[in-house]
Amino acid sequence: MRPRRSDLQGASLGVFVTLLLATVLVGAFGVLLESALRAHAPTERYGAARAVVTAPGRVGIKAKEVGSEPRMKYRPRTEPPHIPVSAADRLRQVPGVRAVVADVAFPLVTAGGVTLSGHGWDSAALGPVALARGRAPQAPDEVVLPASAGTAVGGTVRLQADGPPTPYRVTGLVGSGSGAYFAAGTAAALSGHPGQAVALGVLADPGTKTADLRAAAPGLEVLTGSARGDAEDPSVAAVRPEMIELSSSVGGTSLMAALIVVGGLLGLQVRRRAREYALLRAVGATPGQVRGRVIADALRVALP
Q: Using CA atoms, how far apart are residues 125 and 100, in angstroms rounded to an integer?
């Protein structure tokens, strides 16, 4: 019994709409997946560093659910972890490495409520950050501020870190950014983590092997290229696993739904022509000829 033309047209329309929607969804979430895999925060503060060494971006937690064996679960860090400054010693021995700079970072608040990021002046080389006016800080009560802070060289500002607001004399201004730079010793004391840093910036010659850097920093992450931005803003890397899971699950579900619908429609068309296929076999058609007819009918439905 030959199916009516209207049935074929209806099935073809259903397949076309299903594939169209599936293509749109899979394409959209495929772009989202690609963005999640490759997106990183802009690299600004570590622009001059060939590599940035940080603590692992995820922390492992051993958890046990009722009725199951204990297993490790990993959660992304939302704040930069600290690593020992002594880890720089082995990195300095890697061929091609010119210097390793420890970046000490801590939050600051001005008297006007503006939030700044405090650093040691030695980490300015990782930007690189250049003085627009004035000089680098040397004394414990000196600071270099961004020009956007609205303070002139020689002026005094009150900044608060982990204690009461303290006056500092502005010795210089940098052209951009939101960082306040202190002498190295002052920055280490204000950070509250002496002997530790949020990252180690590696200044190296072109051709320095990343594998050698990773071998010199066991247990730490060595970020290169655009991945260096993850060290500046860990919150971007923190949402990456969720974006990957969301885009993969929704895109995969859309694709599976399309395959199920198309397969069901093709199966329906084959069942409708079962008598015709049986008749073909009865008059001597070979199995290959019957399969060819089935494939032709399937293509007629699948390619509207």
A: 10
pTM value is 0.66
For residue 233, is it within any domain? no
pLDDT in tens, 81-114: 789 999 999 999 999 999 999 999 899 998 888 8
β pairing state of 83-84 and 196-197: antiparallel
HSE of 270, CA atoms in CB hemisphere, 13 A: 16
- Domain-located, residue 235: no
19 conformational bin, left if phi > 0, alpha if psi -120 to 50, beta if neither: alpha
> Is residue 68 domain-shared with residue 216, that is, in the same domain?
yes
pLDDT at res. 178: 77
* Residue 225 identity (one-letter amino acid): G
Do 207 and 96 share a domain, yes or no? yes
Q: What is the pLDDT of residues 118-164, one digit of tens each?
A: 999 999 889 878 888 999 999 999 999 988 888 889 999 999 988 88
Which residue range(s) make up the domain with 176? Answer: 106-191
Predicted pLDDT of residue 20: 75
State the residue for tokens 């502005």: 170
Task: Name, of 13-22, 126-135, 152-161, 290-299, the range with top average pLDDT.
Answer: 152-161
Q: Clarify whether residues 110 and 182 are in a common domain.
A: yes
- 166 and 270 share a domain? no
Residue 1: pLDDT band with limits 50, 70, 90: very low
Closest CA to 233 of 40, 75, 82, 58: 40
What is the C-alpha to C-alpha distance for residues 34 and 143, in angstroms, rounded to an integer? 42
Q: How far is CA 43 from CA 53, 85, 126, 214, 235, in A?
A: 14, 22, 11, 20, 14
Using CA atoms of 196, 201, 202, 207 in order, give the dihedral in degrees to the nearest 10: 150
Query: What total number of domains does the chain contain?
Result: 3
